Amino acid sequence: MGLETPLALLGLALAGLPFLLHRIRRRDLVPIALPTFHLLLDAEARKRRSRGLTDILLLILRVAILTAACMALAAPYVTARLSFGDGSVASVAIIIDDSMSMMRREGGSTLLEQAADRARQAVRSLPGGSEISLIAGGSRPRVLLRRTSTLDLAELELDRIIDGPLRGTQLGDAVELGVQQLGGARNSNRRLLVLSDFAAHSRLTPDQLGYEGIPVTLERIGSQRTPTNLHFTSARALADPTAKGQTSVAFELAADGDVPAPVPVVVLSGGEELARTEVAVAGGKGRATVHVPTPARDQDPTALLRIESSDGLVDDNVIGVLLRRADAVQVMLVNGDPHPASSEDELFYAQSALRLLPGSAGILSVRAVDADALGKYDLATVDVVVLANVSAPGPQLARRLREFVERGGGLLVTAGKNVRPRAYNAALGEVLPCRLRARSHKASKLAPVHESGLLGGGPSGLTRVETTRRLLLECDGGAELRYEDGSPALSVADRGRGRAALLATTLDADWGDLPLRPGYLPLLVHVLRHLSQTEGLESGPVAPGDSVRVPVPPAAAELEVVTPEGLRHRYADLKGKAVVEFGETHSAGPYRVLASSGAGALTDAPRGAFVVDVPAGESDLSALAELASLTPSASQEGGGAVVQHSLSPFLLLLFAFLVLAEGGVRLRSG
Amino acid sequence: MSEPAQAVLGQDVVQRIATLRVRARRAVEGVRSGIHRSPHRGASVIFAEHRDYRPGDDLRLLDWRAFARNDRYTIKHFEQETHLRAHLIFDVSPSMAYDGGVAATHKRDYAATLLAAMAFILLGQGDAVGVHAIGSGVLETLPARARPGQLDAILRLLGNPPESDGATSLQHALTACAERVGRRGLVVIASDLLDYEAAALEPLTRLRALGHDVIVFHVLHPDELDFPFEQRSRFVDPEGDASLDTDAEAIRHAYLSRLTDFIVSCRQRCTAAGARYVLARTDVPVQQVVSAVLAGRGG
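Predict the joint structure of the above. Result:
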């Protein structure tokens, strides 16, 4: 603090003027010997209290007026260190890391809130004419505020950043986005400020910060001390083969070091505690398995595991699991040519390939049955039936299969020696996409797949498939795969509410080398999911903020998605929709999907529930080791310039106010 | 005033007395015309008139000689001898020594002129007039006489009153006066009545009980009545050491309200005691006040 014209303070001596005048006036009063003095005294006594206060108030106001005037003339100022920049007009891009690790609480607020406060300070330190741009550094990086000279907008936007999904960190991309925002800025003074906890998972490297003419300031939010943080690394639920009606939930914990006390973990479903255990964490890891009742089909299939221990980051103390695997696509592989030697079995390749699918995904539940026993199974629990080299079904079974497809099931017929075209046409011709004409013994190759609604674009892994025999198909519609001569190799068609497909070759290697090609497993998965009408659905855990395609059960009138916090998102207009897009995946944990048909009650929709996992890597809160080398000059305390702020305008305002107040008091006192 | 008197009293006092005489006479001249020497008729040596007897007349007043001459009952009237004893009570307390910078409105001088005028009238009627100068008590008394030279003595006392150094004590002074004035007479009081004791005017009741007619001239200066002061002023108590610095404009309203209460209180107490109350403002000509009193007005 200082004064530009300190001599003006001499005028403060005038502050005593009201006192002096008061004394002089008292001294110079001419006495009047009024006979009615006692009446006057009496009247004075009545008014003395209020007038005495008024006099004192007036005296104080007059002294204050003179003091304020002198102080204003002295032009006092305060010096302040700018929280950012050098006080000159600049174009600034501020990158705020809004990843999950920034949700860590320190000193009563989250690091993200602290970063927003720091950004506000930086914005306020910019002089008029400056430009500001805000970028969020959590994945995916995004521009919160395009470059603007209306600095107030930045503060509004900073208020909104607090609410959002759990995100990973992509600071490098965010810096690039910030640099893009500064391109074409009207000020040559361009700066970039990155506010983050700079945890190890941010993986920021020097080459991501080297932009000519744009100095990058990195400011660490929060302390450098790494707090102990516990988090789940995995959780799986499997039906317990040893105990009927029980499901094993196995999970693993991790920490950045030993945790002295066992960590309590609780399993919850629908708000109720299903199980509780304590896990010893040694060497940074711990694991345990708990058993919970397997939920029935009309019960909540989701469960939430929660670490009940305070640690650095609360948001990663949960993980979701699906307790009922029946939500996977139920595939029934019907073996038309079983063989004692497994490698010779019709389903050998198919089962071997499907077994390679990630177990945690749980998207396909495969069951193999012999063709002879097919009639004994209830198809109501099956989503897709694969007739692999199966003889044409009898009338009763054929009718059941046709009804199965009409109701929404999927049917795949693959070729083989047992597949007789005429019999198949008679039995299942109504639902098959093509008519079977005959078998061909002519060697052929599959034509390259350019664009397929089923397989998508790109490499299919099927380009070198050669067959020695095949079924000749006569299809009205298109084909997903064709032979080089143009004849259909794979055709799929919608039939009723279901789908049916025909493969002109065998599932095993009897008629060609399809099972030996890299595209075999993807082809199987794509076809099975297409037939089960679950293609495009999430096949595993979802990242927070991602949009999820929730399947709409046939005839569902309403659909409701329940978040881990219990918030319900309702979808009513489902006519003609196979899936709905759900984007409110802000929290980690299990999401339950309920559906109703007509006036029926809401029940858990098959294959609806899904799990949102915390962003990978965000639980590692250890500091980025290279930060010091990245920011030799940056400091958390800030290195802004020192500027002067004049206090004279405020004092002049005070002066005017005091003058008005004095006039008001005088007027009021008469 | 005679030469020896001037030697004794001093030129200044003599001048004041002369001035008082002139003022009093001037005040009375306008009043005297139309006034009978005595409004009362009764036993006296001075014949006044005859009139026919009317039933109820005192038989002692029958003129037997006239009845003998003309055989008619005639009542013989004589001019009544005046034996009224008037007592002028003159407040000379320090509070009466105020003129507000205008000599003509000096309260004590005004009161003296008022009383002198009354003395002129009363002595002219042959009544006995006396004066009591009061302050904290009775300071000086001139017994009531109707003899020649009484007017000079009265004027001398009114023009050169004794000094009073204490606060006014009307109750004490008027009580003392009541003990001295005897029975049945006229008591004329000229005072500012600035004694705030509740019993200050109680002696008026006693005076009335003694058969006196009581006239109270409440003498107040225009400054006291109008409070024309402005800005901040220092007021001091003329009968004490107290002072008050105050903003005159700010306090005017409260003061006038309090003064009005005081005047109303004085009037009510006088009236209650059976006395006539006359507010005498010192910028109003004395003859106007006196004529109003003699005409039965005033107050």
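Residues 37-73 of chain A form the longest helix (37 residues).
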